[in-house]
Amino acid sequence: MSAPPPCSALSRRSALRRSAPRRSALRRSAPRRSAPRRSALRRSALRAPPLRNILQRKLKSASQWQDLVNFKEVQLYPALPIVQNELAPSNYIDTDTLEFKYYNYRLKGVNEAGKYTFSKMVQVKPYNNGIRGQIQNFTATVLPSNQYYTDFYIPPFVDANQGSVVQKKPEGSVIRLQWGFNTAYTASLREFKIYVKDNVPANMTDGGLSGKYTLVKTVKKGVAASTAQAIGVSNYAVHVDRLNFILSMAKKVKIVAFHNDGGFSEVAEILVNP
Questions:
Q1: Under 8 Å between Cβ of 268 and 179
Q2: Fold (topology level) of 131-272
Q3: 146-168 pLDDT, tens digit each
Q4: Among 11, 45, 143, 206, which has the highest number of CB atoms less than 10 A from its own CB?
Q5: In the prediction, which pLDDT does 39 show?
Q6: d(Cα 130, Cα 97) in Å, to the nearest integer?
Q7: 253, 179 in Cβ contact below 8 A?
């Protein structure tokens, strides 16, 4: 029986090569680990929830925004009822003394990275009921008909700053009115209007006694202040003359303040006996 032919060294090497795994195959089987792209990191930072929201306001005609409140501490502001599509309620009531003009509001959201974005802007105008203040301490005094009285006189077509303190002789009955005015809109205050009517009883409305108010005097705020200073009192004062107390009937006097923007004060009324 013959023995198998001996293997050559060359044949053995080729067999070893065939049995060993290739390096390229090892490379393909190993999982790849790629570093995240910078753009992806930037997007994830921008999409992070805002750390705080800042409410901003400006006049419609202005260019600069004003920060009003930081909503990070939401517990300081009571929540309004949730409206449709609102997940978490939040609100802010702007109680600043504002002009009656249009204002723009927006929210500025800021995250931990300092990145920020803005909400949709809304435009509103402060609620205006027309009331600008209250007349206070309204008093009326009938001056003696036989005595001169001190007044602040302004000649026709002359500025109020050029008026002077004078002594005047009463013409008919003269009523001295004094009052204060509490308002947050002093700069827009223009004038005061005085109305008078006879306090007519219900059984005496005929014979021309209608009992309706009549405008008897319009006084600029500067003149009213100067008159008060002339007679040694504070706030405002004015004299209403040429009044006749018909049948010794009392008169009702009311005063209203008017502002440049069309606003007015609450009405103050007083009963004056002859």
A1: yes
A2: Immunoglobulin-like (2.60.40)
A3: 899 999 988 877 776 678 999 99
A4: 143
A5: 40
A6: 14
A7: no
